[in-house]
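Narrative of activities, Objective 1.

The group set out to show that a structural description can be obtained from nothing but a protein's sequence at a throughput compatible with the screening campaign. Below is one input-output pair from the validation batch, recorded exactly as produced.
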Amino acid sequence: IKMKSKKKILIHICYDLFIRNYIQNNAFKEIEKKYDCYYIASKDTVLLKNKIKKKKNFFGFYEFSKDEKKRASFNFLLHFFKYRHKSRAINFTLKVMLKPKLKYYGEKKLNTILMFFPRIMSNLIKKIKLIIYSILNIKVRYLDNNSSGKKKLEKALTNINPHLIISPIQGWHIGHSEINKIAKKRNIKTLAITDNWDNCSSKPMLKPHFDRFLVWGKQSL
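Output recorded for this entry:
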């Protein structure tokens, strides 16, 4: 008798919070019994690497370059800026994000004084850039031509060929954006699990969106 093969699920982990909430607490225990579950994680934002590496079918870590992450962060900030009038929560969060940081933890007083005007100017240039990009509707091309992070995600989806991708989310992460883009092109369904309702109300999500969003209880729903 030919055994029916299990459907495959790729679980994407991008922060240590999700290692603690989902991996160490065995939140995926039941679906691991029913499906073939694979795991992939962000190298720079997941520090509890030994915890995720112990998982069966761990595919590995992906990593985007420093410049890619910097450009992608600006792209997300630009998205925030364009949606600032959609809700008071988004507008408030944007103001916090755009507030100039004039002093860093542990910094000497002399360095704070010397860097005061450069930091003010840098913040002003960022705001002007946001206005110009928004008015002219300029698209931010943030990935390198041979992005190793994108290649790793593409390799994972090619080799595993999952029926579904599950991503616990908290705010924005470059990995979410890129894995969603690849999944859409390959008609792979995506599902996000959000722990806090304010992740949906105070943060405009970049397209393409996840196909489904899950929450943990009636109050969040």
